[in-house]
Design goal:
Layout (H helix, E strand, L loop, with lengths): L3 H24 L20 E13 L2 E7 L11 E5 L5 E5 L9 E7 L7 H7 L6 E8 L9 E7 L3 H10 L5 E8 L8 H8 L3 E5 L8 H4 L8 E5 L2 H10 L5 E5 L13 E5 L4 E5 L5 H8 L16 E6 L2 E2 L7 H4 L2 E3 L4 E2 L3 E4 L2
Parallel strand pairs: 7-8, 7-10, 8-9, 10-11, 12-18
Antiparallel strand pairs: 1-2, 1-6, 2-5, 3-4, 3-6, 12-13, 14-16, 14-18, 15-17
């Protein structure tokens, strides 16, 4: 029979081996493959704030203005927006339209989208003064740049990122504004815009004037003119088509750029979970992944909030989002809108 000391040594060595193996697997569940970095999905892109909703006010037909208060809020520049986390968990993006010098409150406005996916209706019907809301940001992908002259084009709620720009323009700046909407009653902040712009303002309500005359708007645009446009996709496409040579166009979208056709099926490997699947041409990566991993985090489904960001281990990415930086695009993607630019893509999931 083995001696008691030998048995004890063998048992101790086996225990240490099991513990070491367990630690190794915890570091890399796919051991003996190399350990992967922690996944990026669902991480907030900036410090989250808890702010008090102190005002919920109708400012035009179908538009409410929200005032969110807190102490020592991060500074912002004209063109910036916030991620507003709604009580349901939905995340929606709204342009800041208040005073950048106010360090104790943020102001945003939201239009009700009757046939939308529920976020704007929740803002209009379920938010109330006194509620505490989570806010992320601010972030700015639509900054006001120095230019010899400016042309601003706003459609409806698209006035919100442009309004702080008008207030920030230096005295003597050369600029014009075209502000359009379905009706004058549906155009928020119209009286304030009139006071700021005076004779530089052209108002076009579709029910009265019809469609705007963009050729006339750009008739005297000089080289180097900065053109800022925010509004419906049709308006932005028209501005792009009418843009004069030598002008610089800056666009802010509230929905991803529309793409028609061109999608193809591709193979997708989920490296962490060891799954292989096909993403059909008529499906998003997110939809295909959630059929296998139903707890995958997501929110806006439009490429704006970043909740569904995933690290890409291998393959070429066809980026279609409005959020990621150039550095982030090298090795990650938003799976709600972006696709593979190759026959196969490997995600760290």
């Amino acid at each position: 029979m083995p001696k008691p000391l030998t048995v004890a040594l063998v048992a101790g060595a086996a225990l240490l081996t099991r513990q070491a193996l367990r630690r190794r697997i915890q570091v890399s569940p796919l051991w003996p493959m190399p350990a992967l970095d922690p996944p990026v999905s669902g991480r907030p892109r900036s410090r989250a704030l808890r702010l008090l909703l102190t005002s919920h006010e109708k400012v035009a037909d179908g538009v409410v203005r929200l005032r969110l208060e807190g102490a020592g809020l991060p500074r912002w520049e004209p063109g910036a927006h916030l991620d507003l986390v709604l009580p349901s968990g939905l995340v929606r993006q709204y342009s800041l339209c208040g005073d950048p010098g106010d360090g104790d409150s943020y102001t945003v406005a939201a239009r009700l989208v009757e046939d939308g996916r529920g976020g704007s209706r929740e803002v209009h019907e379920q938010l109330a003064e006194g509620m505490e809301l989570e806010v992320r940001g601010p972030r700015n992908r639509f900054p006001l740049v120095a230019a010899p002259s400016y042309v601003f084009v706003a459609g409806g709620i698209g006035i919100t990122p442009i309004l702080p720009m008008l207030r920030a323009l230096p005295d003597g700046a050369r600029w014009r504004l075209l502000y359009g909407g379905r009706t004058r009653a549906s155009m928020p902040f119209l009286e304030e815009v009139r006071e700021l712009a005076g004779e530089r303002l052209t108002v076009v309500a579709e029910d009265v004037e019809g469609r705007p005359d963009l050729a006339a708007l750009f008739a005297d645009a000089a080289d180097g003119t900065a053109v800022y446009c925010c509004g419906p996709e049709g308006l932005m496409a028209a501005v792009e088509a009418a843009l004069p040579e030598g002008a610089a166009l800056h666009l802010e979208r509230f929905a991803p750029r529309t793409r028609t056709g061109g999608n193809t099926a591709f193979e997708l490997e989920l490296r962490r979970s060891g799954r292989n699947l096909t993403v059909p041409a008529d499906s998003t990566v997110l939809a295909a992944v959630r059929r296998e991993l139903p707890d995958t985090a997501y929110s806006c489904e439009q490429g704006f909030c970043g909740t569904c960001q995933q690290r890409v281990v291998a393959g070429e990415i066809d980026h279609r989002d409005e959020l990621l930086t150039d550095a982030e695009r090298r090795d990650s993607m938003l799976i709600c809108v972006s696709r593979a630019g190759s026959d196969r893509l490997v995600l760290d999931m």
